[in-house]
Amino acid sequence: MNTLLIGATGGVGQSLAHQLAGRVSRLWLSGRNGQILAGLARDLSALAVPAELGNELEVQALAEEVGPLDLLLYAAGAVQRAGLREQSMADLERLTAANMGGLALLLKYARFNPQARVAVLGVYPELIAVPGLSAYVATKLGAEGLVSVARKEFRREGVRFCLVRLPAVATGLWAPLGGAPKTALHPDQAAARILEGVLAEPLTEVLEIR
C-alpha cells in the first residue's frame, strides 16, 4: 500500500506515522519541521518528502515523487487565536494553506490507484465555534466542503474519501489556546482509532471519534 501522510511532524501525525510503519508497503512522510521529519523517516524506515503546502510547485513535485497512491492521510493543521478585528492576512493565509489549501493542491496533482482512500482529519464544528477561532473554523469547515465535492468528482476514478471528526487531542496545536482540555485524547489513542476506521472495509464517509 503506497501511503502518503501529510502533517507527519504534528502530534497526531507522529503517532499515525509510528502506527503505519510496518503496516503499509511504502510510507511517505511530509511535514513542516524538516529536522523532525528526517529523524522520523529514518527511525521508521520511511521516506521523507518535505513540501510547503502553500507552494503549488512544491506540492506538485511531492505528488510526482510519491507516485500513484493507495492511501492519502491529510493530518496537517494550524491554529491561531485572534479576534476578527485583529486577524492579519498573513495568519489567515498560513491557516488556509495548512487546513485547506494544501489539501486542494494535493487533490489537484495526486495520482491514485484503483480503490484508493483519502482520509482528512476534521473537527466537530460545535466544539470550535468560539470567539478568536474564526480563521480556524472557516478553513477547517472549508476543507470539509472540499471533501464533499471531491468525493463526487473522484468517484469515476474509484477514489474513496473519509472525513474524520476528531474531538480535542492533546497536541502542541493547543499551545496558542492555553493548553489542551483535561478530557483530550492522547495522540496515540486518536491515531489508533483513526487507522481502525480508515483501514476498515467498507470505508465510512464520515468517521466520528469521541
UniProtKB/TrEMBL annotation:
Top-level class of the enzyme under EC nomenclature: oxidoreductase
GO molecular function: gluconate 5-dehydrogenase activity
Family of the protein in this entry: Belongs to the short-chain dehydrogenases/reductases (SDR) family.
Keywords linked to the UniProt accession: Oxidoreductase
Taxonomic lineage from the root: Bacteria, Thermotogati, Deinococcota, Deinococci, Thermales
Segments passing through the bilayer: none
Organism: Meiothermus hypogaeus
PROSITE patterns given in the database record: ADH_SHORT
Matching SUPFAM superfamilies: NAD(P)-binding Rossmann-fold domains
Signal peptide stretch: none
Record protein name field: Gluconate 5-dehydrogenase
EC number of this enzyme: 1.1.1.69
Annotated InterPro entries: NAD(P)-bd_dom_sf, Sc_DH/Rdtase_CS, SDR_fam
Taxonomy, superkingdom: Bacteria
